[in-house]
Each structure stands twice: as structure tokens, then as C-alpha cells.
Amino acid sequence: HAVWQLVLQHAKEDALFATNTSGIPINAIAQAFNEKDQERFFGLHFFNPPRIMKLVELIPTSHTKESIILDVKNFAQNVLGKGVIVVNDVPGFVANRVGTQTMNDIMYRAEQHKLSIVDVDALTGQAIGRPKTGTYALSDLVGLDIAVSVIKGVQQVPEETPYIHDVKIVNTLYEN
Fold this sequence. Notes:
- This protein has helices at residues 2-10, 26-30, 35-38, 66-78, 95-112, 117-123, 135-142, 144-155, 168-175; strands at 17-19, 41-46, 55-60, 83-86.
- It has 176 residues and is α/β, with parallel strands linked by helices.
- The chain has two domains: 2-86, 3-Layer(aba) Sandwich (Rossmann fold), CATH 3.40.50; 95-175.
- The chain has a four-stranded mixed beta sheet with strand order 1-2-3-4, with helices on one face.
- A hairpin with an 8-residue loop joins strand 2 (41-46) and strand 3.
- The two termini are 30 Å apart.
- This is 3-hydroxyacyl-CoA dehydrogenase.
- Residues 2-90 form the 3-hydroxyacyl-CoA dehydrogenase NAD binding domain.
- Keywords: Oxidoreductase.
- Belongs to the 3-hydroxyacyl-CoA dehydrogenase family.
């Protein structure tokens, strides 16, 4: 919260405040702001690499002004050329929640069937119409620390727990 307090000291009255996080609840960060400043705060989650990935998740707080949500959405679509979805402040938002579950399930099944990382990446990349980055390469690009953090966040949602599995190789790589 100290960083946001410093930013607020130097920001203009009409400045907008956003975070690109995908793992920290937006409403938790918003607590650094007073209620008036919370009207100008939101999450704007770009996917990596942002120059290539089109999707952006816009995550308002319960205090974010509707006009700001619309302005940011229009800016991201019309100026940045992004596809914008407005999502709720839930662990992993929408795309990471779906993507993490998919990635986790693929790795879990690969482990159960003793498939190699190379084979899994070959099967889950361009062979099925996805980008050339397969499942394991994508988790490496995103960063195992980020992937594990998102998985742990999604595990906190009771209805998601049955779909998240411990994957030995991910745990081993993360711990080392």
C-alpha cells in the first residue's frame, strides 16, 4: 500500500489508477485508496507478451465509476486494438482461471501417462491449432512462480478444487 500512497501524493485529481496483476485481488489493492480515489482504480490485466496477445481483462472494484470502466474499455479496444472483457474480481479472473485449469489438467494427465515434456508441448501447441508455445513452454514463459500462485488462488475457490491437481514436476521445479 505504501507505493500507492506515494503515487497518490503526486497524481492529478483526474488520474486513473490501474494494476496489471492476475494474482492479487483487485479489491485488496483498492484498500490502499480512500473511497473517492477508489472510483478511479481498477485492474487491467494484459497477457504476455502484450504486443502479441489481444485479450485484456478489465476488473473494476465495487467503487470504480461506470464512466471510467467504459472509457478504459473503449481506449483498450480502439487505441490499443485489444479485445476487452469486463470480469469480476475472483481468483485468476476468467482467462487465467480457465487457462490454469487447462494447463494443470494437461500436466497432471501427462504425468499419469508418463508423457515427456517435449511430447506434451508438441501435442498442445500448433498441432491442435494453438500458438507454437506448448503447455510446459507456456508455463515457463509465464513463470512457474506465477503459475503456482494462480493455481493456489484458484484452489481457494471450493467449486474449483476438484479440477486442480498436484503435479509433481511443477512442484519440484518450483521448489528448486
